[in-house]
């Protein structure tokens, strides 16, 4: 798909003191259709254009804020990594189900942080504290970093940092296909490059503003040829008419496209569709015409470890999803690994 170019860019004045901040300012200053503004803080961007919430939300999704990440205490990540490394926040995609809609609340704009050296220095401290254990960092907990990295190259720099690390490892996931600049990165096999994939129905109706399935699969083929460890997140697994055939076709197409040598060691993460009460309200506000099924009566309620419950599929449906996709993966990727199903 066409690489993302923001319509509106905000700069923190201090960000211009960093090489990346200067580079981005020079780049956007030369583009006639990009408006530049200033803000005192990337957390305090106010007066976004738009006559109503609907318009402001969409304008925010095409707005980039260039700032400094002042808090360098990393959050602990999901089971797949020890820490989240904060290179960016937000995403230009319009996935109807995305949890970032609720976690980002009134700040749906995209943020990139120019103090990359300081962020990597902090990562090294976390690595040193746990050495000689391996410490894994997730770069996409609050963003789709690949979607803006053709502008910043922060991710590429981070990949090469971990490429030289003895005990550090990097991982991230994307729905975008702008990967060409990452193919020659000196990763040394220490970054797992994952793609979020789904049945065509889900991508068509619920993932506007992201790369098409074939574009993601072709990008995955490039990444495999570049020698990266490869993984796929199938999420959210969503029950729809013909879902079994849709997911079978997805995995068949993936197996046919990826080089055979890349299919050994490939990982899969399987996540069924879920939503919370707050998420439902935000989704229906931001995407009032969505086809997304959000009927609480059809789901079962599962308490989360932080006291926030989620609506997930009924137990029989959950078991059928798990068994069906596990069988497909075993069929098409006998040398792959399912890391988890949730």
Task: List key phrases describing it.
7-stranded parallel beta sheet, alpha/beta, 5-stranded mixed beta sheet, 11 helices, 342 residues
What would you say this structure looks like, in words?
Helices cover 35% and strands 19% of the residues. Strands 4-7-8-9-10-11-14 form a 7-stranded parallel sheet, covered by helices on one side. Strands 2-1-3-6-5 form a 5-stranded mixed sheet, covered by helices on one side. The chain is globular, with a radius of gyration of 20 Å.
SSE inventory with pairings:
Blueprint: E1 8-11, H1 19-29, E2 35-38, H2 53-60, E3 63-67, E4 83-84, E5 88-89, H3 100-104, E6 110-113, H4 116-130, E7 135-138, H5 146-152, H6 154-163, E8 168-174, E9 191-197, H7 200-206, H8 213-225, E10 230-237, H9 243-257, E11 267-272, H10 277-286, E12 300-302, E13 310-312, H11 315-332, E14 337-341
Parallel strand pairs: 1-2, 1-3, 3-6, 4-7, 7-8, 8-9, 9-10, 10-11, 11-14
Antiparallel strand pairs: 5-6, 12-13
Summarize this entry quickly.
With 342 residues, this protein is α/β, with parallel strands linked by helices. It is built from 11 helices and 14 strands. The chain is 35% helix and 19% strand.
């Amino acid at each position: 798909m066409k690489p993302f170019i923001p319509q509106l860019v905000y700069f923190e004045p201090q960000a211009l003191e960093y090489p990346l901040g200067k580079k981005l300012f020079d780049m956007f200053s030369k583009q006639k259709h990009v408006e530049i503004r200033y803000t005192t803080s990337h957390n305090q961007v106010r007066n976004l254009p738009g006559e109503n919430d609907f318009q402001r939300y969409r304008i925010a999704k095409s707005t980039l804020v260039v700032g400094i990440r002042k808090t360098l205490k990393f959050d602990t990540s999901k089971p797949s990594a020890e820490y989240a490394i904060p290179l960016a926040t937000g995403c230009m995609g319009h996935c109807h189900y995305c949890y970032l809609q609720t976690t980002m609340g009134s700040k749906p704009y995209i943020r990139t942080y120019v103090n990359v050296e300081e962020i990597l220095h902090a990562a090294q401290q976390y690595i040193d504290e746990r050495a000689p254990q391996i410490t894994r960092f997730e770069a996409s907990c609050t963003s789709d970093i690949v979607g803006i990295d053709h502008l910043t190259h922060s991710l590429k720099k981070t990949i090469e940092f971990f490429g030289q690390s003895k005990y550090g490892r990097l991982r991230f996931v994307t729905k975008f296909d702008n990967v060409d600049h990452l193919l020659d990165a000196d990763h040394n096999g220490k970054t797992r490059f994952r793609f979020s994939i789904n049945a065509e129905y889900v991508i068509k109706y619920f993932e506007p503003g992201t790369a098409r399935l074939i574009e993601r699969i072709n990008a995955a083929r490039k990444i495999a040829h570049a020698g990266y460890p490869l993984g796929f997140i199938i999420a959210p697994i969503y029950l729809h008419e013909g879902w079994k055939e849709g997911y079978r076709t997805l995995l068949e197409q993936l197996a046919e496209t990826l080089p055979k040598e890349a299919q050994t060691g490939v990982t899969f993460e399987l996540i069924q569709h879920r939503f919370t009460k707050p998420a439902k309200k935000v989704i229906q506000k931001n995407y009032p015409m969505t086809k997304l099924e959000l009927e609480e009566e059809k789901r079962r309620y599962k308490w989360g470890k932080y006291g926030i419950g989620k609506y997930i599929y009924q137990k029989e449906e959950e078991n059928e999803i798990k068994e069906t996709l596990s069988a497909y993966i075993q069929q098409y990727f006998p040398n792959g690994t399912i890391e988890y199903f949730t």
